[in-house]
Amino acid sequence: MGGRGGPLVSRLCFVVVLLLLCASCLCSLANAKRTPPLPKPPAVKKPPPSPSPPPSQIPAYPSLPVRAVCLGGWLVTEGWILPPLFDGIPNKDLLDGTQVQFKSALRKTYITADQGGGGAVLANRTQASDWETFKVVRYLLLPMLWRINETTFNFRASGNQFLGIGASDGIIVATATSPSLPETFQIVRCPFDKNRVRIKAANGYFVQAIATGEVIADYGEPTRWSDWDASVFLMAKVGQQMQGEYQLCNGYGADKAAPVLRDHWNTYIVEDDFKFIASSGLTAVRIPVGWWIASDPNPPAPYVGGSLQALDNAFKWAEKYKLGVIIDLHAAPGSQNPWEHSSSRDGTQEWGTTDANIAQTVQVIDFLASRYATSPSLFAVELMNEPLAPRATLDSLTRYYRDGYDAVRKHSPTVYVVMSNRLSSGNTTELLRFAGGLQGAVIDVHYYTVFNKMFDNFTVQQNIDFIRSNFSGELATVTTQNGPLTFVGEWVAEWKVPNATKEEYQKYATAQMNVYGQATFGWSYWTVKNANNHWDLEWMIKNGYINLKG
């Protein structure tokens, strides 16, 4: 049937096509009359195709939630993590921030800054308290030039005034708010008992406690170190000694601290550690840094340069092994808490007390974000670690967090910005409203049982139950729908249970990972290496206490 009438149909189709072509030509002529012809565009040479990015430039961001480990004790010193770092410091028991008490061997009374300072210094109390306790501050010889003399110190009273000699009479007072030559003392230790001392003032005389209770620097006689010598004192050290970056650098002095720290930076964390971290099932590293890194290679005294190169190496290794990096400002200028890991000089906390201090901290964040924004491994910037309330106020902290967030966003629209909750604020949700309006914001909370006395007598099961109920519940209150992400930035499988078995440690670690795995950003173990085995994640993994691949 298809062959019938074929020639007629073909002729009709030909006529239709011819008419359409004619109509198209007429339309083109009509348009040509209305619009002048366009000039022929110049020939454009095609650019060569872009080369494929090298492997190190392919984004290696981990997926959420991350499983990370902190590289604690590497670029911010903490003596308890690696005690041998301090072994070469002369008089290492008298580092900055050491709390000391002096008891007159003759009078049996303690040197006292009455009311904590602000007036005369006496020796009239037989019992020691805060007024009889002084913080050791190693001597600042010249402006901007720190020189270590293992026997020369300033003494800071509990009210923050410094002990010094009066104008002309040698009477010891505690009135200066900053130390100078009159507030300088030398501790001379007994050859056969280092805690039996004499204290030499800047006027060249030794301090003595006289019968009226006054303390005067007017004693010039030699000594046999007996209890009958009014210039002999029994020195006692109280509290936990601070062993942070400040204490290490100022204890050694710049010339000796530089090689000690550079050797530490080059050997403590190396490429093989990143390889192990990646192969163990972890996806990121949290790297604590100090504010002085932004001034590398010439940071202000007493710090020494070199940590920036170590951080550069960390990014190179992270890119190679496809790990995310969370830069953590662990030590802010002025110290955001009174502990050694914020590099406080003597336990004082001064961060956030001035606008200039906050601005300086923002500059550090700007420096770090600018330097590493193009790295595919930069996953997050943590604006500050563990600010302590009430000294770090919520107002100063949120002002800083807003400016720090903007500093990161200036260089990257995608990097996460982590904001640590204040310790001791009593309100774990105080940042929710603020951070909720910021894209890519993360709230960091830390969970430990080992530092709280309430856990002293907890059993294995009580510890685990507390994690599953209390910590889990608290984490749930911070983790809100459409709110900021949540991050358990520090935790450890250590507790106060005596003689716990390996199996009990395994259960404790697993319980924590199950709970902290509910954090929408993830978790980070403290630390990758440590002198204490259960704080050492590498040791825990290699010895079968923690399994991240199961």
UniProtKB/TrEMBL annotation:
<feature type="domain" description="DUF7910">
    <location>
        <begin position="91"/>
        <end position="236"/>
    </location>
</feature>
<feature type="domain" description="Glycoside hydrolase family 5">
    <location>
        <begin position="263"/>
        <end position="531"/>
    </location>
</feature>
<feature type="signal peptide">
    <location>
        <begin position="1"/>
        <end position="32"/>
    </location>
</feature>
<feature type="compositionally biased region" description="Pro residues">
    <location>
        <begin position="37"/>
        <end position="57"/>
    </location>
</feature>
<dbReference type="InterPro" id="IPR001547">
    <property type="entry name" value="Glyco_hydro_5"/>
</dbReference>
<dbReference type="InterPro" id="IPR010431">
    <property type="entry name" value="Fascin"/>
</dbReference>
<keyword id="KW-0326">Glycosidase</keyword>
<keyword id="KW-0378">Hydrolase</keyword>
<dbReference type="InterPro" id="IPR057232">
    <property type="entry name" value="DUF7910"/>
</dbReference>
<feature type="region of interest" description="Disordered">
    <location>
        <begin position="37"/>
        <end position="58"/>
    </location>
</feature>
<dbReference type="Pfam" id="PF25490">
    <property type="entry name" value="DUF7910"/>
</dbReference>
<dbReference type="Pfam" id="PF00150">
    <property type="entry name" value="Cellulase"/>
</dbReference>
<comment type="similarity">
    <text>Belongs to the glycosyl hydrolase 5 (cellulase A) family.</text>
</comment>
<keyword id="KW-0732">Signal</keyword>
<dbReference type="InterPro" id="IPR008999">
    <property type="entry name" value="Actin-crosslinking"/>
</dbReference>
<dbReference type="GO" id="GO:0016798">
    <property type="term" value="F:hydrolase activity, acting on glycosyl bonds"/>
</dbReference>
<dbReference type="InterPro" id="IPR017853">
    <property type="entry name" value="GH"/>
</dbReference>
<protein>
    <recommendedName>
        <fullName>Mannan endo-1,4-beta-mannosidase</fullName>
    </recommendedName>
</protein>
